[in-house]
Recover the amino acids of this structure.
């Protein structure tokens, strides 16, 4: 497989040590996508464009350039399109960089999205392509108050006990509203508000926290029942709220649980998904421009020349080395991969290619004999969260009530994902089942088979997504904003929408605009 | 049509003057449903049971009794089954109590659920029947941070401006977290927490409110962008947060907006729905026991007799008055209707039938030429909320990206619904379009046709659902918990799950258990 590149060593040293993506989201550093309708005039007159990579950026670029009569070829190293849109189904095979091989043994019809799985409702570029390509969209249940939180290793009466998300949310709303109402009462806060306006804030707090007449939080039916209400003589018995201290002791006020992802702009409801698997979006493009894609073409060298660019690649099927020349080249290859490809880029570009950090990320799909999370726990979609290495359990939000199901038993980032990725698939399975059993004791009884991915070890990706620190954004990012002669850069890493499909689309559209403008100018 | 009953006058006087259902939810008085698996032994040996009403309670009772070899007949006054499960589609006709006639002119395939539209994920009795009858379930988007709040009639710079729900939610989390952190700093609160634990609360508040390093709320990208981030050189410009004072002045801290329905146990995500219309749940039952239903049978008298019960009804098709006798009768007729039917019930039952209040509620479905709320506003499902009479705008959460759509332009309760219901359908349409235009100015351009319901004026329902005050629960409710001789009462009004399908199911199951136990005892 690929040799370790210079970049590979650098990034080991500089890579974020924690959950970079989560932290970014918590800080609201990952932003959102505007609508860009592309209605370019004029004609490319058969100018040749070589596109490297058949991920979302490459496919969208080929699609848009095709509309303008450019002659495009897409070189794709894999035997499938889509890049980090990848839906794992029965028969999916993958060999990771260090040689671990897996074949998916799920039942027919079972799947999980190993890469992109959800679309923010404001990522209009994605929605626009779905509309244009006839790809349907449905709601993706990113939140579920019935899913669990599980804090491992805390103290006190709630230590190592799973709780429903509704419980923590209701209790913290209650306690903080009570405390703030008390501070208001004691005039402890010097606020530029009239007495009447203060009264309105207190009224709000009473509603927000579900406080009683004495403005105390004494629990609330919002957090659920010990005995559920029913018909006839069963009014139900609300569950008692734990003390604030016990929530603190158990660890539920730590960032693992308080950095609520669904607060971020990107993960707010409504989130959307492509029914049947995100790869159906890829199929939408392939129907339009599939003939332009050459599969099994592993790029070996990218060279700026006098009249354009020459790309040398290994035709993996025949074993032959081939070369193609074109007027322009759009390079969408992920930076950790590009770093290992010979090139004569400018030194600014080379430095950026080598030094922009990428995130580690793992996903482990688990097929179970029955949907015990629905049948036993009443969990329909959404995500359970924990401070264990598995970080998240993502439940399927389609096929409710059906017999079997695949859930994502681990979705983690950063150093946690690095550790998990360094295990063999069999060891990962073991660890994920052991940790997941703390939340769902049914795992042992119901488990059938797994398929795991450590994206940092997946050939031709070698990472989850670009993670720009403010410094990296300032120092390296600008190198991608201008073409390096005939070579343009596109992909999520050339956007402020890193990690999202929209970043790939927006950058592809911007690249097509730039090339077209240049061609129309005749420069 | 029906003459005004005694009950009708009483309820005019006692009916809750506000949004009873909302208020109940805010107070968490409307509870949730447990799993009840019914696995009764023994045989009814052809004992005859007369079931009054083919709503959910009647259908479930007939279905369960059929399993046990009882001989059931269901008398249904309407020409359709389902009761308050009612999906309005092209050709749906209705004549309200005071003679207003409507025929639905939506396009084929367009519909809205005039009655039950959503199922809490913990209403296991509903999920159990869906599973058993092969009725699929999907997620119902009850919440959408991208939907609007619109406060009419406030003061200040935000007065009469719609805002996205994400804005108010992010701002109030920010301001309250800032204030509470400040109170902590000033040691204004005497808390039984160690210094270390206090620090954890502050850390939580910083995350919860998206506070800056100085623990101040200065806005957050969570609330969205003025210029959206994109590819290349567009990092985006976050929108500025308004001052707390301006939110107060505009009215956004009032109960219309702070009594967040999705906080309640019943309306928390995940909510579920039946794809294609809730009436597909009705169809599931009808496939099993449809032959037992007599339609167009308007009950005129219910009489306890020596050996059982005799029910006299008008066969609306022939105009003939008919009578049926049975060993037992299960009466699921809504109380406002039952109050007008001759009977020889006990005085306790009669009093309860006359005096338990029901809620007014209106829904107005609007078909539009295009889904501008998706195309222009990026709203996929969820509910916009306002203090205007329309109260809610409910967006469809299926068929995203399709051409046309039907949204529910008004869903209100209590006195607001009474006022709207007193208008003619044409006047309701006019009012709903005028008020809705304040949130969606596209209404005027895109509107095609409407269908409106005031449930208090719908024959054979005459109200939305039972609304028990604590007093009504204590004084009247117990009358329904025991049979009145051979007559049993079932329906949402005989449960602590009023207004929900689960209330109907749970009460039906309890009734079947009671009858079967009595038959097995031979009493």
């Amino acid at each position: 497989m690929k040799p370790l590149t210079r970049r590979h060593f650098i990034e080991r040293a500089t890579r974020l040590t924690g959950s970079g993506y989560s932290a970014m989201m918590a800080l609201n550093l990952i932003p959102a996508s505007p609508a860009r309708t592309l209605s370019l005039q004029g004609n490319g007159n058969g100018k040749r464009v070589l596109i490297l990579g058949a991920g979302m950026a490459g496919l969208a670029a080929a699609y848009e350039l095709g509309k303008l009569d450019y002659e495009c070829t897409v070189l794709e190293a894999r035997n499938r399109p889509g890049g980090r849109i990848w839906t794992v189904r029965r028969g999916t095979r993958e060999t990771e960089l260090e040689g671990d091989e897996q074949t998916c043994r799920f039942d027919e019809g079972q799947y999980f999205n190993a890469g992109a799985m959800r679309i923010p409702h404001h990522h209009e570029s994605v929605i626009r392509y779905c509309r244009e390509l006839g790809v349907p969209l449905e709601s993706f249940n990113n939140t579920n108050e019935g899913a669990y939180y599980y804090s491992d290793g805390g103290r006190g009466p709630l230590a190592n006990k799973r709780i429903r998300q509704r419980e923590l949310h209701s209790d913290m709303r209650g306690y903080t509203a009570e405390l703030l109402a008390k501070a208001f009462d004691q005039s402890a806060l010097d606020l530029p508000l009239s007495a009447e306006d203060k009264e309105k804030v207190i009224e709000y707090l009473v509603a927000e926290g579900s406080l009683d007449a004495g403005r105390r939080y004494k629990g609330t039916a919002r957090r659920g029942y010990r005995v559920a209400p029913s018909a006839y003589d069963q009014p139900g018995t609300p569950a008692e709220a734990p003390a604030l201290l016990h929530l603190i002791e158990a660890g539920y006020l730590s960032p693992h649980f308080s950095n609520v992802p669904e607060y971020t702009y990107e993960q707010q409801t409504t989130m959307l998904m492509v029914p049947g698997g995100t790869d159906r979006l890829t199929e939408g493009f392939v129907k339009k421009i599939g003939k332009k894609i050459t599969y099994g073409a592993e790029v070996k060298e990218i060279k700026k020349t006098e009249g354009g660019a020459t790309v040398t690649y290994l035709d993996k099927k025949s074993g032959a080395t081939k070369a193609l020349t074109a007027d322009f080249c759009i390079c969408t290859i992920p930076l950790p991969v590009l770093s290992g490809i010979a090139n004569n880029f400018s030194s600014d570009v080379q430095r950026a290619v080598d030094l922009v950090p990428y995130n580690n990320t793992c996903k482990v799909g688990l097929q179970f004999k029955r949907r015990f999370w629905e049948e036993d726990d009443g969990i329909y979609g959404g995500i359970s969260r924990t401070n264990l290495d598995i970080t998240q359990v993502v439940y399927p939000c389609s096929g409710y009530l059906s017999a079997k199901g695949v859930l994502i038993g681990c979705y983690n980032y950063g150093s946690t994902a690095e550790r998990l990725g360094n295990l063999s698939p069999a060891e990962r399975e073991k660890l994920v089942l052991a940790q997941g059993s703390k939340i769902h004791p049914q795992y042992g009884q119901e488990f059938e088979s797994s398929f795991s991915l450590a994206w940092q070890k997946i050939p031709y990706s070698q990472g989850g997504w670009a993670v720009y620190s403010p410094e990296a954004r300032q120092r390296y990012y600008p190198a991608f904003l201008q073409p390096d002669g005939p070579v343009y850069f596109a992909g999520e890493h050339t956007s402020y929408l890193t990690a999202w499909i929209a970043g790939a689309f927006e950058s592809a559209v911007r690249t097509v605009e730039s090339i077209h403008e240049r061609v129309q100018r005749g420069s």
